[in-house]
Known about the structure:
327 residues; 10 strands; four-stranded antiparallel β-sheet; alpha/beta; 2 domains; 15% strand; Uridine Diphospho-n-acetylenolpyruvylglucosamine Reductase, domain 3; Rossmann fold
Amino acid sequence: MMRTDLNERLATELREWMPVGQRYLVALSGGRDSMALMHFLNVAGYRDLVLCHVNHCLRGEESDGDEVLVKETGEAMGLRVFSTRIGVKAIAEKRKLSIETAAREVRYSWFSEVARKEKCCRVVTAHHSEDQVETVLINFFRGSGSRGISGMKCHSHRDVDGVELELFRPLLAVERERIDKYVEVNGIAFREDSSNAEAFALRNRVRHRLLPEVESIFGRNVRGAVLRAAELSRRDEAWMQANLDNLSVKMSKGLDVKRLRELPEALRDRCIMGWLRESGVPNCGFDEVSRVSEVAMSMDRPAKLSLPGDFHVRRREGVLFLEGPQP
């Protein structure tokens, strides 16, 4: 596994792709990782920072304590803090989501709201290499392709509530033990989240049950192997995306059926997936892409298929096209 310390070398590399002179929103929970990130950014020369915190109201006084620490940190550093309190449990029940998913949606919605107020869409999070391992494993067991198995990117974009957030993850290659050491050496105050030890969240079960069991079976630390697989998938994904635009499949009204039929299955499905996502079709996955591919390859009539979000795909006169939801 890559060994990366929070030191001047990492700071120098970071400044190459995350310019110091810009403003950034920093996702600050009050936990060990985000407090280490906040300290490291300050040491690395980042001064125009805005702290963003969400009190999920899940742990009573513990959650309130997290909020207090974040506000005190902002005051001590002379930084503005945008903090909000949201009852995540009620939202999860209303939307029929897991607590984990609802909390993530709430956080990113808050980031987008602050981004509008501050006219700054750059958000920095404290995801580290252990988070990456868990993400890759979760996506693998969900049946994701190379895009999911490649995990998170150090630099990416995400559209939230009509705001395109630019996400930075400077600690993504840093091991948790290195963060622990950095916190200890620098005497950084942080809050322990007792819920991290509970099994209600899928990520916690992967961290505390799946990974130890897998490593027990293999008799070694498998995290490095998982990260290598993610990196190889990322390279494959990058190559695939770079070559999609050269396939001459897109037409003004849709996709060229004749050209689609000439492509290898992997490229054909990738073209279809990208087209569906660009067209705003929600919840596109393996099943939806396979069904659309069947419509493209079939000679049968009628060639029509229903998709999520009340979209319909049709094949007519050599063109695969979409019909959107009726107003």
